[in-house]
């Protein structure tokens, strides 16, 4: 459920008409709903309530300061994957002991920064990273808390570009080698083992791959404890999918996911960490765009809008589906018409949808909204074709605020510098 609903035929973000925001901010823009962000975060908290837990929001899915501030104020931890994301979490007021640092390529500088600022744990993905982290921490007179990310070799049955838990993926340490790596970790002066980490992929639409991975983590927890390690935290990653197509069957609910976690791991007396991104921010955001032209083509017609692949990359990158709806609801009984929805960028890949069934009568100046655009939307945008990064707006009840303004062309152009010989 989200808070983008039609009222009197006009799409609202909570209590604010989307057309009112468009008039104030211009298009295209991302619009997030505070109530939806909060609701989805709380669903995870409730799902894990029977166990000690920390829900760490995956900052990569939406890293706007206002979004992080909102979730942080509700008690969320943060899962970060770069020094930049670490600084964003800190700047939003999240304390270091609620920040988990993931990622396959942490640099020594990033390790130093997180150790100095405080960090809950590093999720270590390779032996060389483990050695580097120990050296950095010991050099600072500190000990780094770690979980080793294990790769359970489970098929997440999701898009190949976002599956991470198969042995051929670059992520984690093969679970078969885990005991060896934990033994190595225990012998390093700058390392303290606190737990195990696993993340098998994103946009998972069934529980079974999670269950298989967690069963392997359960087995490994017992083995590592036998080896003398103090495994007290299990970080289960993110990955629970959302219904992008409202017509399709819905993925499992957080409460079902939570129940499965209790069944598979609840008896181990561990603190459970999870790192959901998409399920918290995805359906909490829409991308609003204006129709520029309706063009009759040969065999197919095009809806040319002012958002493009650089603003929302998911369709061109993954062939992802986003529901597209008119901001002014079509009257009941309005005929429908298949259209290719495209942006102004000079690439055929700049196509959001092919032959999408849309209400007849959309015309220049009309607004459309892409649903489920709050995760991996604004964060993946670029300025390709010198199109300014799309502004972001946050709604709360009947108020809205611009939480990242659209840059001016001067700002964009003046970021470049001319070398002295030109
Ligand atoms: N934890 C780790 C270690 C991750 O790598 C990810 C996502 C998450 C948590 C959060 O996963 P989520 O709950 O959001 O599924 N750009 C792609 C998604 C990439 C996901 C990468 N890792 C997309 O637009 O679908």
TrEMBL record:
Its cofactor is pyridoxal 5'-phosphate. InterPro entries: Ala_racemase/Decarboxylase_C, DAP_deCOOHase_LysA, De-COase2_C, De-COase2_CS, De-COase2_N, De-COase2_pyr-phos_BS, Orn/DAP/Arg_de-COase, PLP-binding_barrel. Substrate binds at residues 278, 314, 318, 347, 376. Residues 29-374 form the Orn/DAP/Arg decarboxylase 2 C-terminal domain. It holds the Pfam family Orn_DAP_Arg_deC. Pathway: Amino-acid biosynthesis; L-lysine biosynthesis via DAP pathway; L-lysine from DL-2,6-diaminopimelate: step 1/1. This is Diaminopimelate decarboxylase. Specifically catalyzes the decarboxylation of meso-diaminopimelate (meso-DAP) to L-lysine. Its EC number is 4.1.1.20. Residues 35-281 form the Orn/DAP/Arg decarboxylase 2 N-terminal domain. Homodimer. Belongs to the Orn/Lys/Arg decarboxylase class-II family. LysA subfamily. It catalyses: meso-2,6-diaminopimelate + H(+) = L-lysine + CO2. The lineage of its organism: Bacteria, Pseudomonadati, Pseudomonadota, Alphaproteobacteria, Rhodobacterales. The modification N6-(pyridoxal phosphate)lysine is found at residue 60. NCBIfam families: lysA (TIGR01048). It is an enzyme of class 4 (lyase). GO terms for molecular function: diaminopimelate decarboxylase activity. Pyridoxal 5'-phosphate binds at residues 239, 275-278, 376. It comes from the Bacteria.
């Amino acid at each position: 459920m989200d808070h983008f609903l039609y009222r009197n035929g006009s799409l609202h973000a909570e209590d604010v008409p989307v057309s009112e925001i468009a008039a104030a901010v211009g298009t295209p823009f991302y619009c997030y709903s505070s109530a939806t962000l909060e609701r989805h975060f709380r669903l995870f908290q409730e799902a894990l309530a029977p166990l000690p837990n920390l829900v760490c929001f995956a900052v990569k899915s939406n890293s706007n300061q206002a979004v992080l501030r909102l979730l942080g104020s509700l008690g969320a931890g943060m899962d970060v994957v770069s020094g930049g994301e670490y600084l964003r979490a800190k700047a939003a007021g999240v304390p270091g002991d609620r920040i988990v640092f993931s990622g396959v390529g942490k640099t020594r500088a990033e390790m130093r920064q997180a150790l100095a600022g405080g960090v809950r744990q590093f999720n270590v993905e390779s032996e060389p990273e483990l050695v580097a982290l120990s050296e950095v921490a010991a050099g600072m007179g500190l000990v780094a808390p770690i979980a080793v990310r294990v790769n359970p070799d489970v098929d997440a049955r999701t898009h190949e570009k976002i599956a991470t838990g198969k042995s051929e993926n670059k992520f984690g340490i093969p679970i078969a080698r885990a005991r060896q790596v934990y033994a190595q970790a225990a012998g390093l002066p700058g390392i303290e083992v606190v737990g195990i980490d696993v993340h098998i992929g994103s946009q998972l639409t069934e529980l079974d791959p999670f269950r298989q991975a967690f069963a392997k983590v359960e087995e490994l927890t017992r083995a590592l404890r036998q080896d003398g390690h103090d495994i007290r935290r299990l970080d289960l990653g993110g990955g629970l999918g959302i219904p992008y197509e409202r017509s399709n069957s819905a993925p499992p609910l957080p409460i079902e996911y939570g129940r499965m976690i209790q069944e598979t791991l609840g008896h181990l007396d561990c603190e459970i960490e999870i790192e959901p991104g998409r399920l918290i921010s995805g359906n909490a955001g829409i991308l609003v765009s204006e129709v520029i032209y309706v063009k009759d083509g040969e065999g197919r017609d095009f809806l040319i809008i002012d958002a493009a692949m650089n603003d929302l990359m998911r369709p061109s990158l993954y062939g992802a589906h986003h529901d597209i709806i008119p901001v002014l609801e079509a009257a009941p009984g309005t005929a429908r018409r298949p259209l290719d929805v495209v942006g102004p960028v000079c690439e055929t890949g700049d196509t959001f949808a092919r032959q999408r069934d849309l209400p007849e009568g959309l015309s220049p100046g009309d607004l459309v909204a892409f649903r489920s655009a709050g995760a991996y939307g604004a964060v993946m945008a670029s300025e390709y074709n010198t199109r300014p990064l799309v502004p972001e707006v946050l709604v709360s009840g009947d108020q809205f605020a611009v939480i990242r303004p659209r840059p001016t062309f001067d700002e964009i152009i003046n970021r470049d510098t001319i070398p002295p010989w030109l």
